[in-house]
Amino acid sequence: MPRASWKGFLRLSLVSCPIYLAPASTRTKSIRLHQVWQPKAGRGAPVEDDDEDDRPPQPATRSFSEDFDDTRSEPPAPTRVALRPHDPYTGEEIEREEVARGYEYERGRFVTFTPAELKALDVESSKSIDLETFVPRTEVDPVYFSNPYYVYPDGPIAVETFRVIGAAMTEAGEVGIGRVTLSRRERPVMVEPRGAGMVLITLRASEEVRASAFERSDAEIDLDMVAIAETIIKRRSGRFDPATFRDRY
């Protein structure tokens, strides 16, 4: 059984059934690079001393390139950098308790919020996804797609109602549009049948999608060039196989 990331109800007018969502996508493990202080030669390096036993042991950290060049002398070892809040005008370090979250409504002018005030701004969580509108699947532009989830019936009692809602959408050839609160934020969603289950895709708001700036040209297209391009496309036509797309970072 997939791990649920949200539980609630899928509601179609007076018909509803308990469901749960499980992410349909995953993120590859991120490669985190830390900020480090790498002293230049002669700065921060250990001073030559005849009494080697009194010197503290140095970390055996090497840079990536030095693993392939053993002719170089050992440079000072990199050291993690600690970032602390400070006054940008005086450079004086300030206490973290004095750091607040604020919104810059004018240049250099902020309104600050306490944790309690930010909590009060949270959208009231609803445990129902109301399918308010139904539209043809082709009318939903993929540029609005955000995060996909698989929708599962939550328990044996929910299976029949779940299948009825899915079959009705399949018969109508349409998908449901609704809203759900995920991670303290209300998001528009699209729900579509997918085999024996359903898929829910969170949608971007209209202000999150930029309008296209394609320039229309009335110039005639070379039909011979189009024919050559069509021939190439036909030769390279195949089936979409997501297994061939891998993160090669």
The top level CATH class name of one domain: Mainly Beta
How many E-type strands? 12
Q: What's the average pLDDT?
A: 80
Oligomer: single chain
Helix content: 10-25%
Uncertain stretches of 5 or more adjacent residues: 45-52
H/E series: EEEEEEHEEEHEEEH
Distance between the termini: 31 Å
Structural class: alpha+beta
- Cα gyration radius (Å): 29 Å
DSSP summary: helix tally: 3
CATH fold assignment of one domain: Ku70, Chain: A, Domain 2
The CATH architecture name of one domain reads Beta Barrel
Instruction: State the major sheet.
Output: 8 strands, mixed
Major β-sheet strand ordering = 7-1-2-9-12-11-10-8
Strand content: 25-35%
Shape, principal axes of CA atoms: extended
Give a verbal description of the structure.
This protein is an alpha+beta fold. It has three helices and twelve strands. The strands form three sheets. Strands 7-1-2-9-12-11-10-8 form an eight-stranded mixed sheet, with helices on one face. It has a two-stranded antiparallel sheet with strand order 3-4. Strands 5-6 form a two-stranded antiparallel sheet.
Summarize the structure.
The chain is of the alpha+beta class and 249 residues long.
